[in-house]
Amino acid sequence: MIRIPQVRVVDEEGAQLGVMPTPKALEMAQERGLDLVEVAPMASPPVVKFLDFGQYKYDLTKREKEAKRKQRSVTFKEVRLSPKIGTGDFETKVHRAIGFVEDGDRIKVTVRFRGRELTHPELGRNLIAKFVDRVKDHGVAERTPLLEGKAMHITMASLHKPKTHDAPARPGEAGEAHEAEPAAVPAATAPGPAAPATPAGPAVAAAETRAEARTNSQNAPAPEPVTTGE
Question: Is 109:156 a contact under the CB 8 Å cutoff?
Fold first, then answer.
């Protein structure tokens, strides 16, 4: 509820209606079937607008979700090396680190010492210096290498802006953009040639012959009685 006695009113089209008493502004909003929403409470006098408050809240929430979906926090990645790392493995680590900093992430380059390797910390410093030199076009070292326990590490910041990754579209949203394609109707199948009649075997032929003989005997006329002379 707006408790300020006077407000500056903006209608639903964005036109300025000037300063007027709050009850009058509320009455005008109700006549238009809208709500009186305070959009600039810190102004003098506060600015109100004729809006559909439900739609206004929906649009505001939608914009906040869109901004949150596109923002990306900077993460911390680690690349581990050893003083005896091979050339191929070293190149792989360099390419992986470049991919991290191109995405805007920070990286921590760590050299782990084993056994007597710890007595030669210069190997770790030289390796880190070589690594930083290979990645210098994409990231910058934040400080000098630091030896802690059995590991020497350095952190590098990216020279690129963090990339934004849009969330994948929901299955329902993708289906709304395109009309459903008609289902394919299978073509009518042409009738094939009739199968040839299978000749009847001997047993079938004999049975038919017997049946025909019985039929003929039943249909034959009865014999006339024979009379003999006395």
Answer: yes
